[in-house]
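User
Here is a favour to ask of a fellow structure person. I am asking you to supply a protein in sequence and structure-token form. Please set it down just below, with no commentary around it:

Assistant
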Amino acid sequence: MTAPPENSAPTRVLITGAAGQLGRELCRTAPDHMQVQALDRAALDILEPAAILDALKQHQPHLIINAAAYTAVDQAESEPEKAFAINAKGPENLALAASRHGVRLIHLSTDFVFDGKAGSPYAPKAETHPINLYGMSKRAGEQAVERLAPQNSLILRTSWLYSAHGSNFVKTMLRLMKEGRSLRVIADQVGTPCWALGLAEALWKLADLRA
């Protein structure tokens, strides 16, 4: 993959899930040569194929960055239909529309597609084995993107996303420590918190690449 010429025309980018942690940082860090349309759920419901087609027609993007997601890991166990709708059907709708209209797609996924038993870092092509409904819903979304837009998509897995916005593990720990409360947390998981700002900056570098 190579970077575009320095004097090339602006790249038109449509961001879904613009009100979330990552969506906000993508908007804040967008390079000058990126022409961004940032849409939250109220502006674009990715469960509505017609709405996606309307957005593509209106904004004519070269690239979609799908930051829309159902992220309530534990709650997914009691809301499987909602989790699969947003995390699987939504990406499927985006991938189908992107493929038909020649639009590149960057889709955000999660390390929860693995069971964590490897004991070493997972390679991109490592066999997946989600162990909860959240992970299953995200893997189903990956599979839809792989199936429908195999040549024109990129799947990026992240973990423990945190930022100054919204609810996240880091903010919860800081709040509890500030309140002087005793902390009770799980001790059988190992992970690497991912700063949404750093992830956004990495995504913009990937957005500059051409196959």
Remarks:
- The longest strand covers residues 104-110.
- Strands lie at 11-16, 34-39, 63-66, 104-110, 153-158, 161-162, 194-195.
- The chain is about 35% helix and 15% strand.
- The chain has one domain: 11-207.
